[in-house]
Amino acid sequence: MTEQDARSLLAQHGQSHVMKFWDRLNEAERAALLAQIERLDFDSLARMQTLLNAPVETAGGNPTAPHVIEWTPETYAEAKARGEEELRAGHVAVLVVAGGQGSRLGYDGPKGAYAIGPVSGASLFYFHTRKIVALSRKYKVRIPFYVMTSEVNNAATQAHFAEHDYFGLPKEDVIFFVQGLWPALDGNGQIILDRPGHIFMSPDGHGGTLTALDRNGCLDDMEKRGIRSVFYFQVDNPMVELADPAFVGLHAAKNADISLKLCAKRDPYEKVGMVVVREDGRFGMVEYSELSDEQANRRTADGKDLYFKYGSVAIHIFALDFMKREARKAMPLHIAHKKIPVCQDDGTILKPTANNGCKFEKFIFDVLPDADTVVNVAFDRAEEFSPVKNAEGEDSPATCRRDLQAKWARWFAAAGMAAPTLPLEIDPAYALNADDLKAKGLLLRELDR
Ligand code: UTP
């Protein structure tokens, strides 16, 4: 793209100010700016501008709670057997979304490299990848691991895996793909520059997964490998039962487009999304903030439970065919008001103390209404969910390590072994669950810390 092309494209979309520092830029800065402009998606930009002044959407209508499957020993055993067949046949891939900025955690590096191991200090990526190693060994199969990064953390993420020899997975089975970046807009719909000649960009949300998979050839790669189901999860939850065979089996048996694991909410206002059946009969996800007080507190007919009892924590399985159908559709955009550094007319940078601009994101669950068959299955939060979101307090490294160790301690009890002293850690490649631990005997790593 030439300077002239850039100027006319920007003028056409009312964004000429992006070039205002051009004369002050050196060759490298100019090239970088032209590359940024070339990658701007002006169709999405136009959609962002219309969102700026749109009223906040609420759930509207009268959504109802979906059917949520609760396991019995029999249904669990049946689904597990089916899932094990799927795994053995090499039909399952694993996908982690790790392109987020981890701003609440405030960790300087990709969140997946955060040292969560209570004894070893091993990273979140270590725990995830070692589970895949364990499943690969157990089912004598190659399980590809797709890792979504963003331009902001891609190099550091790849370096972390390389430095640790891919945690024991063959290098060619760890596939990194980079999600898109979007500009932010000020209240007038103008692209924000965060320094002279540089457009502020941030990741386009976990909903960017599908476009990014498609653009990077990952959907074709999955197809070539014979994948049918893609287990999807977020990087910050080391408790996840990755590619849990019963979940995989249920998804396959029901021929679902999407399957979701849901857990009982802590309280009516817990900040999780809820799967609902909309008035038009399609599935959808409703944010906690979109429910009225009455909806949030509604009880079941017997009064025992919340009517909207379950929340989603982004543990899903997608049918590859469904992902392919969805990959090129325009997803809804979500707006977030943020503090964004701004380059002022004199070239100085203002770090605002109040929200001054908007970022936009796509959310993966917005594909739900397009799914014909959706399976919702309940899971026990204590066993499978304790995310690292904040530096301190709830959902922090401390609560996550506490929950991990409590889970591992329960495995010892289930195996009839003495309760271990803390700190305690079990390598997922040694034992993925209580049964594995029982079968193998005791691994207890205790260190004086
Ligand atoms: P969160 O929004 O909870 O985490 O994303 P975050 O972005 O890492 O941290 P904050 O919000 O800045 O504190 C949930 C999951 O979605 C991924 C994250 O990496 C995390 O696994 N994600 C989020 C992406 O992959 N891309 C995005 O653009 C946003």
Overview of this protein structure:
With 449 residues, the protein is an alpha/beta fold. It has 2 domains: 1-40, no CATH class; 58-406, Spore Coat Polysaccharide Biosynthesis Protein SpsA, Chain A (Alpha-Beta Complex), CATH 3.90.550.10. The chain is 31% helix and 17% strand. The strands form 6 sheets. The protein has a 7-stranded mixed sheet, with helices on both faces. The protein has a two-stranded antiparallel ribbon with strand order 4-7. It is globular, with a radius of gyration of 23 Å. Mean pLDDT is 94; it is low at 445-449. Bound molecules: uridine 5'-triphosphate (UTP). Residues 97-104, 111, 148, 179, 203-206, 208, 234-236, 389 line the site of uridine 5'-triphosphate.
What are the defining features of this structure?
disordered C terminus, Spore Coat Polysaccharide Biosynthesis Protein SpsA, Chain A, 449 residues, 31% helix, two-stranded antiparallel sheet, 17% strand, globular
Compose a concise summary of this entry.
The chain contains 14 helices and 17 strands. The protein has 449 residues and is α/β, with parallel strands linked by helices. The chain has 2 domains: 1-40, no CATH class; 58-406, Spore Coat Polysaccharide Biosynthesis Protein SpsA, Chain A (Alpha-Beta Complex), CATH 3.90.550.
Strand content: 15-25%
Radius of gyration: 23 Å
Overall helicity:
25-40%
Assembly category: single chain
